[in-house]
Amino acid sequence: MLTTESILLLVFVLALLGYGLLIYRRLVSLRKQSQHAYALVDLHLQHRYGLVAKIVEAARQHLAQEQELPENVLSARTQAQTAARTVAMDPANSGALAFLAGAEHLLQGALAQLFARLQSAPQWQADEQAAQLRQNLASTDEAIRAAQQAFNDVVMRYNARCEAFPDALVAGRFGFETASLLVLTDVQTSAPAPAGSA
After folding, report:
1. Which of 50, 122, 134, 191 has the fewest Cβ atoms within 10 Å of its own Cβ atom?
2. SS3 content of the chain, % helix, strand, coil (to 5)
3. What is the pTM of this model?
């Protein structure tokens, strides 16, 4: 027969297990939210990579004698795309996030050089297609910044849960590790506005 103490102990253990399950589910939910948030970042990055290819194609028409800069941009774009795909498989992988940040930095530098060179090409400044591409790139950069912030917000909530007591006990027991933030230093690949348009 169960004694009062046995019943209280059983209730306490069941309550503790229930609370542990609640914490576990909350951690799983936050991890899934971070994966979904990165998927939105990736969507905007992939759109930008497509725009970069179109910009390079348009730039080649105006830089017929210079092919090195467009090739540098395409090479950096390919590296960034590869890094983004790697992160998409595991957004919690800090090494992959660092690789993406480095690849994005290289792409931004290559695009900045290309746009600086194109500033001296009057046909580029007057090209309506080029202006539309620059505008699309600027709006995509804004979307990337917003998606990056949303991803980082979810990751910070997840990390806070993983580090706070009693969630840290469940996180440690079931292999929930803190995640890294996505740091794309000043996602600003858009071209400067043409002279006289401001």
Report:
1. 122
2. 80, 0, 20
3. 0.85
